[in-house]
Amino acid sequence: MEPTIIAGGCHADARGTILYNNTFNASPIKRVYFIENTSTAFVRAWQGHRIEQRWFAAIQGSFTIRLIAIDNWDTPASNLHQFCFVLDTKKMDILHIPKGYVSSIQAHEDGAKLLVMADYQLGDVKDEYRFDVNYFKKEF
What we know:
Blueprint: E1 4-6, E2 9-13, E3 16-20, E4 31-35, E5 44-49, E6 54-60, E7 62-69, E8 82-88, E9 94-97, E10 101-107, E11 113-118, E12 129-130
Antiparallel strand pairs: 1-9, 2-3, 4-11, 5-10, 5-12, 6-9, 6-11, 7-8, 7-10
C-alpha cells in the first residue's frame, strides 16, 4: 500500500471559514500528538514503523513530508524511492502513511505544527525504527 492524501475542503461565507475532511475515517486512531521542529533548517528524519500506521495533518504552517517504503528493516537499501508530499493549513488534507514506511519531516515556517495520529497506544508494540538523516540517498 502506498501513502495517500485524503483530500479535505474549505467552505467560506459571511460567517467565516470552515476547513473540513469529511472522507477521513478516524476510527483506527488510538492516540494523537503534535510535532514542532526546532527550526526550518532541521529535518526530522528518518523514523518509521513496521506495524503502526500514521496520519499527518498540518495545523499551523506547512511541511514537506518525504516517505520511504522499507525493503529490509535491518539493512535497508540506501537508494529506495522517496514519496514527497506538502501539507499546509490552507487545506484540511490528511496524509495517510501505511505501515512499513519511514518519514522525513521539514517545516517551512518557524512555529509550524504537525498533528500526528497513530493506530496504537504508546508502548503497545515495540515498533520504532530510526535511521541516520543521511542514510538514504536524496532523490530531490
